[in-house]
Design a protein that fits this description.
By secondary structure, this protein is an alpha/beta fold. The longest helix has 21 residues. The protein has an eight-stranded mixed β-sheet, sandwiched between helices. It has a six-stranded mixed β-sheet with strand order 2-1-3-4-5-6, with helices on both faces. A two-stranded antiparallel sheet has the order 14-15. The protein is 37% helix and 22% strand.
Length: 422
Amino acid sequence: MRQALETEQKALEINLDDSIYGTLAEIGAGQEVSRNFFKVGASSGTIAKTMSAYDKVVSDEIYGPEPSGRYVCESRLYKMLEHEWELIEGRLRSVRPATNFFVFANTVATMNYQRTIKGDGWLGIRFQTSPASEPNDLVLHIKLLDNDTQLQQQAVGKLGVNMVYAVFRYANDPETLLLSLMDGLKRRISIDMVRLSGPDYEGFDNRLLSLWLIKHGMSEVAMFGPDKRNIHPSEFLYKKHVLVVRASFRPLTLLEEDMIEKGYEQFWHEPEVEGEKTFTLAEITLGNLSENGPLDEKDFLDRTELLCALGQTVIISNCEEYNQLIAYFSDYRVSHLGLVLRAHRLSEFLSEKYRQNASGSLLAAFGEVFARGVKLYAYPSVLADNTTLMTIQNLPLPEGAKYLYQHLLDHREIVDIEAFNP
């Protein structure tokens, strides 16, 4: 069983390993990672250079400008890694031919004084597992959960040390590598995107990293694109219109394919939705993956293989409650959010909400889901007689929920998918 070491122990162990040498470049949150290596001693054995380019003009001179104007972003992180790697290889390879080089970089925004920024960041490390090999990359996006700027800075420092330690001690075991990143950081950060790439990971399926994030409670949501590459919503969903289709996809059936296709067509034609800014996401929940027994990683990969082949971006989530998913997307200022589900699932969801909140907080409970800019699309199910279609007009509901339900229908916050293939 793996022993979780303290941050100071990890930093000192790396400092005393003369086969490892590298650069640390940090933007935002202070020089917290390098500080951890300096304060334990023997840092000259690890650190070739530390770098901090806080001023945007200075940063642009070194790493190039960001067309988006955003500096806490994936593209800035990769520019930092590429620039610093080129420098350390060019300057030191001839004098350190037997050394495994690394470059650690981060670009982080901690909580601001007005508390309008919650705190998040991109962190990455480019590293070698042997001096003659091409480098690999470990890249993360994190949310900072501490409610204090100094504590957030401290958390970034711990995570950076964990990353350096992990890639040199657990490179051959990706799940252990991932778990070790959270050492000393439970409930202080969430990791909602992680990617391992490079020659040592050519045969590794990164979709498993997304699954492990959810399985181990490191995030509520993770996603990957049709190319099976793990991605983060901040890079493409900001102020967009998003349709989420929740189903089992075990396997993807013609019915579920119709849910995606017809749901997207109807969402695209909504008057308030700009079609060219619309994205569809296929969602599988952790509960769905586990409802027939223990979590099966092959089953997960089999389900997502067909979705990726059909060009779908896939979400794996632990958001059994729709309000959790809605809250997640609200962080990215999604303009309009549509949720597609089977009619019988809608009946179960609304009935459960009623049972849980009938004592007095029913309106507030429904308000968490049916927020401004959110609409539910019901795809028909078959009633118990196996001949009648269940739609929003004959949805089985507790008597006490029907008045509020009719209000939602009248305001078109719940609608049928109209052009479905019967």
